[in-house]
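Collaboration report, partner site 2.

Our partner group contributed sequences for two proteins of shared interest, and the home lab folded both. The records are reproduced in the order in which they were received, starting with the first partner submission.
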Amino acid sequence: MTSPLSTRAFLRHVLPAAFFLLLASLACGQSATGTIEGRVLNTRNGEYLEKARVTVLGTRLEVFTDATGQYRVTGVPVGEARVRVFHTGLAPQTISVSVGAGQIVTRDFDLIGADRTPGPSDGTVRLDQFVVATSKEMEGAAIAINEQRFASNIVNVVAADEFGHIAEGNVGEFLKFLPGMAIDFVGGDARTISMGGVPSGNVPVTVGGFNLASAASSGTGRSVELEQVSINNIARIEVYHSPTPESPGSALAGGVNMVPRGAFERSKPQFNGSVYLMMRDAERSLRKTPGPIREPSYKIHPGLDFSWVVPVNKRFGFTLSGGTTSQYTMQDYMLNTWRGAGNATTVAANALNGYPDTTPDQPYLSNYQVRDGTKVTTRSSLGTTLDYKLSRNARVAFSFQYAFFDAMFNNRSLTFNTNRVLPGNFSTRDTLGDRGFGEITVGNGAREKSGTTFMPTLRFFHDGPIWKVDAGAGYSHASNHYRDIDKGYFNGASARRTGVTVRFRDIFYLRPGRIEVTEGPNDTPVDPYDLRSYVLNTSSSDFRESSDLQRSAFANVRRDFEVGRVPISLKLGADIRESARDIRGGTVPYTHRGADGRTSTTPADPLGTDDGAAFLLDEVFSDKWWNDGRLQCGQPCARV
């Protein structure tokens, strides 16, 4: 949090700087000059161009257009001036303009593609060659190259259209293509950003220059999670790799700024929309299939997104964008624990949980886990911007961003633990656990993660012939909710069977080919794929309610002038940022005792005991294990 300037500091630093700016402006004498202003348009797509370079040939006068394509060149010598406009990907244009003393001349520029030539000057209309190869992705690349060319620091500027449609509108899926960026994935979602080896907590993410709130999965870190912001409401993304004095102090290796869409970036209204179906290649059935919870469900979901840019007139315009998606994701995996290759062994093989030493070329498998994970992710977003020109040189922009995220997780795992292996009872192809020391566990974890983010901002721009002002205030609020027991399931539940002997046979690089589980001195077979073989042991509920609040305000005043023939720019600014986070909740453990009030993990008769886990059988989802058992278990499986 940056505290406001005290009165003494204000008198000591701010007033002298402002006084110096005033003296400097008075010291610059006014000569017989005029002003040229106007807008620069890309005729190929009707979009006004930002950072188009405007120069007056034969002079050192040079300016760049703003976000609305507006430019203004002051101090132009009286007479005929040749003005040149350049933008990457478009043909440069030079026009002669007559400038009078003290006059303001308006001249707009319409740039065409670099591969096109203007028609005859006699007014004859000539059709150009029809080129299908031109696309909005190519135009986005040209915008990005132009932004980087004229940036004051090392920056990657990428138009949101450059890589085409992004599934789910996740900004992380977009940023992973940029150099120097590392995206951290959690549960298949691109969640946080790392830059140049710097962790995500030191990579600030802003929207229009204002801090973006993030409840950070109810954690206490500074990481900004991307799951609650949509690229559909963004015009371009700026990734700066060299911090400047205006960058936040946490930007150790740079940061990311997302620029919302603006109404004055186009000369006429434009609407883009798409409707589609989303699916994973592992689930392509048009029918309802088991999972992710008790009832069968569809795994192919419709989605839509749109953006509408409307410049109503020269003074007012608005944008509206939004989208919604829903996606089913499989999260299956297998985990092998190899002793002697990444996992520790113990010399005392006769001790509990003992694993004898081995050489690196003779590792052996001690534990194996297979998980059937499912997740359904829903995202919705809405964004709008209102732009209004107060005068020729001043405008205000109000922007509002809203996003909703919901993910339902349901992970089921089956684990085989030998717990102890005697010397001589293992090889790279076969592991025999010590009799009665093994354990098999069926674990289940299901919960719902949801949250919303909303962010209103107000910004003021003044681009006068002498003074330039940029000021604004923003408010961002994000929430995160972890729910389980009130939705009808536990976040963690465990059914166990102890006192068994576990053996892995026909082991290869992926998994054991066969798994044998027995118990007792006679090695009576135990079916590890039947839930009736287990007793319910423990479970837990892990609930969290958290929110994050970010307030930002800044103001910058700039004056450009020349002392002799040396151009000088002076800039005075103030920046205030506040952050607050509230986290509530906890973990509640549960122990299943059955009707007799006692717990057990190895009952004498698990099929008839009150501690048995069979009553929790999910008839619908277990069909998936039944039908796919040969793949999941490496042999025919019973229902679990």
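Second partner submission, folded after the first:
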Amino acid sequence: MTRFAKERRVIVWEEPVFGPPERTPRLDSNVCAESGVVVLTPVLPDGSPGEDHEAMIRGLLDTVLATVEGDIIRWYYTPMMLPFSRHIEAVCTVYDCMDELANFKFAPPELTLLERELMSIADVVFTGGYSLWEAKRDRHPNIHPFPSSVDRGHFAKARVLRGEPDDQAGLPWPRLGFYGVVDERMDLALLAALADARPDWSLVILGPVVKINPDDLPKRANIHYLGGKDYEELPRYLAGWDVALMPFAINESTRFISPTKTPEYLAGGRPVVSTPIVDVARHYGDLEAVKIAATAEEFVAACDQALALSRVRGDWLKAVDNALAALSWDETFGRMNLEIARAIAKRDPAAAVDRGATILPSPVIRPSSHKKPFDYLIVGAGFAGSVLAERLTSQLGKRVMLVDRRMHIGGNAYDEKDAAGVLMHRYGPHIFHTNSDEVAAYLSQFTRWRPYEHRVLGCLRGGLHVPIPINRTTLNTLYGLDLQSDEAAEAYLKSRAEPVEKIRTSEDVVVSAVGRELYETFFQGYTRKQWGMDPSELDKSVTARVPTRTNTDDRYFTDKFQNMPAEGYTRMFENMLDQAGVTVEVGVDFEDVRDEADYDRLIFTGPIDEYFDFRYGKLPYRSLAFRHETLDQEWFQPVGTVNYPDEAVPYTRISEYKHMTGQSARKTTVTYEYPQAEGDPYYPVPRPENQALYKRYEALALETQGVQFVGRLATYRYYNMDQVVGQALATFRRIAEREGRAVIAAQAAGRAVAAD
């Protein structure tokens, strides 16, 4: 709701409370200063007849809505709010079904009937997890699962916080904790069994006791009930635990839950022990940090394992960060908002664009009807797709539908501000550089630039930092030399070089230029990590990209144009796509619209083998996993990127974004990169057999009418950003030339008809 409030006025209507009997019904109002969300609580006179309550609440609601201008979206978290609000006219009705409320203790008998009514009038239904979606998907034609997400930045504070809350600070270690509502969903017998089995452990329980008698809670010297806590306080308590607990009972009330606390605990860096909740096992059961245990004995044993794991900060934490990397409430908001926009468009297509622009997260992302005729469907909203969408609409007046399976535009260049306010790149550092005046001039239409020359250091064994690419300073520092000229450095490198009869591989390139020792120091381990194979197995083009210098130039790139978008890449893409003829849909796969959308021509920027259903097999790619960390210090390293050539170090490099963006902030954000075989395709693997496989797909592409393949993935080449832009601009020129010839031919045909 906080994020939604940035786009619309949000009013939250709470359940009524009762005040003095002599008072008339009134509303208590509370406004969030940060978000502007208005929380209204009806206060009814105590002792008033129950049959009058609905009329009282409806009257209060109507008074409020009389002051609201514009369209209304009704958003229900419970069907119990329907009786006094069913008369409201709305452009969209949302049922956000977080739990199977009818299974909860003391659920009102009318809830089931009201939910049936709400399902019949809702335009879109969201469920709080996949299990609940599976149970309800046949009850509504437009229903979507939304498992719990997480504010990673907020809960990650638990990894670094020092100083504990007073009511927890004195408790003995080790500590295992739970926060949440203590109700019929908690397995009290299991909690007691754990306390009895490990009397030297402190079990910390935070949260209000609801719908159960507090006297029924197990009382043990090592169980500490600390009561309810504010959301802001939770990381401080979590920081003082070794292990996080989810001792849920397995009953009707927990059958469909998708606990938010699972990713919150993990974001805080704590191993989790849970009973076998379906959605917990489904989404997190493969993580070493999440232990699933069904019986009391298994639960105790799992806690022993989790406690041992908590004392080792190793690969399990990296796996956690990788698993959480794509989880954010902003992602959830974007996907929900898109479904709402689609629902509005379906009800009122003529007004869809206007209404959609007010509720969608970006001014360039607009809802559309797939049946609306488009001149072009473009798949992929990275550089290739976005440049072509902008050119086709702004220069040729075309109608373009641009789709991307991710929840954002910008492709791998997407950047965003994290919880600390640091502008960071979600998919690793993207440094813009080019020698092309055309590319620089084109992109300058959509952004201001910040001058930035990228510098990279190599961290060698023993902690020695030297410039990369290898230059004269590198040689002097590494070998204690005093080379004073380019000629002296060149002679030194020649003395170390080893002749190679015919240069075929990446190893040949380096050894023939600088010798085996420098090859092993800088290239061999790094390449093995990056590509998962030895340089002797890779095409010579891999290491040929990284030059060796004899001067003291320590810039990573030497292009004449080296700058970063002043407001970030995402803002540049937003400006690029802010064209009247562009309709952007994110979170949409090509297969979702392939046969449904109405378009004349297709531009495909995704993997070419995927387009052809992997007819000849998959093209090999190397992927990356990212670990983003925000540190409570101003700077972490002296330059934007530090490479780690040592094969024993699991990551290849660490990048610090404030060097690149020029931001000033008390904290800093860094990214560790871990190459891996599986995941999103980043780097085509340069081997002859892979290129031969691509050529088979390229032949299919040339035979496919009405489709153009553009970009890295569609042409199976590693391009820098400027090269992709250049390729897209060249593609546009060919389209414009073809369109021009078509216009001339049509005009000539028209004249011929007139003459007849």
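Feedback sent to the partner group on the second submission included the following. The radius of gyration is 30 Å. The first strand starts at residue 11 and ends at 13.
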